[in-house]
Specification:
239 residues, alpha+beta, Arc Repressor Mutant, subunit A, Endonuclease, Chain A, 2 domains, seven-stranded mixed beta sheet, 9 helices, 10 strands
Length: 239
């Protein structure tokens, strides 16, 4: 259940809201006072959490014999929250994009941290109109971090007619990222702790430490120099 609670946190519930919602789903209607005792929480706190879940459409209450019982609503209501956020983002995105155009960017190098950093790079690749991706030092670890998003994105590269070349270690043959039909593969002996992706005028260097991060370089000349180096490595690598 801890893993399920973590996933609920990722989509916007707090840790305590996740705990309360999962309990309601499993055990059905319960009075707030009894709930507070079972979860060893302050009554005021449990009522605040229940109120939050009701506001999010994930819980409701019924009155039986003059007593108020709380119960979980369908998990499908989680999609309502996502839709609301999407509508809000769609509404403010044009204004934010206008602000982005007028701001002066002092640096062409950015560091993007954690899962969100990897997701940002993935989105940039799919929206870049790039027709070729070059990757060397591929580790496959991004599939561990983005286990749900990456297989879908990999298929989308095919739909967008994006071709690619990957240089990685022989020891990783057979991994999911080596099976992509729209990518050519070549192999070297070494395993590297990072992965470098070249697309459009960008270079993304992903480092998979305890908390992954990506160094993003936006420069046409730098991207071209990395392409030249990749082409040199491609000639040395073996199929």
């Amino acid at each position: 259940m801890k893993e399920l609670a973590k996933k609920l946190e990722e989509i916007g519930l707090s840790s305590k809201e996740s705990e309360v919602y999962i309990y309601l789903l499993k055990h059905g209607p319960i009075m707030g006072g009894d709930f507070a005792k079972i979860l060893n929480m302050d009554r005021t706190h449990i009522y605040n959490l229940l109120r939050n879940l009701i506001n999010k459409g994930l819980a409701s209450h019924v009155v039986k014999n003059g007593k108020t019982f709380f119960q979980a609503n369908s998990p499908r209501n989680l999609l309502n929250q996502i839709q609301k956020k999407k509508e809000l983002i769609d509404n403010i995105l044009p204004e934010l994009l206008k602000l982005e155009k007028v701001q002066l960017k002092p640096s062409i190098v950015n560091v993007l941290e954690g899962k969100e950093g990897l997701r940002t790079i993935l989105r940039m690749i799919l929206e870049s109109n790039a027709k070729e991706l070059l990757v060397y030092g591929g580790t496959g670890k991004s599939y561990d971090v983005l286990e749900y998003e990456l297989p879908h994105a990999a298929k989308k590269t095919g739909a967008l007619n994006i071709k690619g070349k990957i240089i990685t270690s022989k020891k990783l043959k057979g991994k999911a990222f080596t099976q992509l039909p729209n990518f050519e593969m070549k192999y070297v002996e070494e395993i590297t702790p990072s992965s470098t992706t070249i697309f459009a005028n960008k270079v993304a260097i992903a480092v998979f430490e305890e908390k992954p991060f990506v160094i993003l370089i936006e420069s046409r000349s730098v991207a071209q120099s990395y392409r030249n180096y990749f082409n040199y490595l491609w000639k040395q690598a073996k199929k």
